[in-house]
Amino acid sequence: MKPVHLSRALTLEEATPVSDGMGGFTKVWASLGTLWAEILPGTGRDTAGEEVVLSTVPYRITVRGAPQGAASRPKVGQRFRDGTRFFAILAVTERDAGGAYLVCFVREEVPT
After folding, report:
1. For the chain, is the Cβ count within 10 Å smaller at the N or the C terminus?
2. How confident is the model over 47-87, as pLDDT tens digits?
3. How far, in Å, CA of 74 to CA of 77, rounded?
4. CA–CA separation, 87 and 30 (whole Å)
5. How would you label 73-105 residue by residue, b for 16+ Cβ within 10 Å and e otherwise?
6. DSSP-derived 3-state class of residue 70
7. Are 55 and 40 in contact (CB under 8 A)?
8. CA quadruple 38, 42, 45, 51: dihedral, nearest 10
9. How far from 14 is each of 9, 71, 107, CA to CA, in Å?
């Protein structure tokens, strides 16, 4: 197994519904903390969004392991932020049997 280089500080965020004052809700992203990570790219493709074409690129983001239920453990529906870049978390699994690292399968979407 190749070594992991946790060289990028990413912010883990979770969506919280907030009242918009007109009977509806809007999604606000709240920071859960910073995790050191390794980001490895996959292959890109174009996909049709609601009103635009999105260029999607899958990535694998590796972070330190955390027990189930811990606030520092990423989960589906959350996202990572790296400055102005956002990575939606699609799946999370242990990288090794001991659970020392977690691999997050994510997608970065950039409007074109």
Report:
1. N
2. 665 666 566 678 999 999 998 888 889 999 999 999 989 99
3. 9
4. 14
5. bbeeebbbeeeeebbbbeebeebeeeeebbbbb
6. coil
7. no
8. -20
9. 17, 10, 16
Name the residue type at position 109: E
Nearest CA to 35 among 57, 66, 64? 64
Please report where in the chains the tokens 């659970």 appear, as a residue: 99
Question: How far apart, in whole angstroms, are the C-alpha atoms of residue 9 and residue 26?
Answer: 27
Confidence of residue 93 (pLDDT cuts 50, 70, 90): very high
Q: Give how far the C-alpha of residue 37 lies from the chain's centroid of Cα atoms, to the nearest Å.
A: 11
H/E run at residue 34: strand 25-41
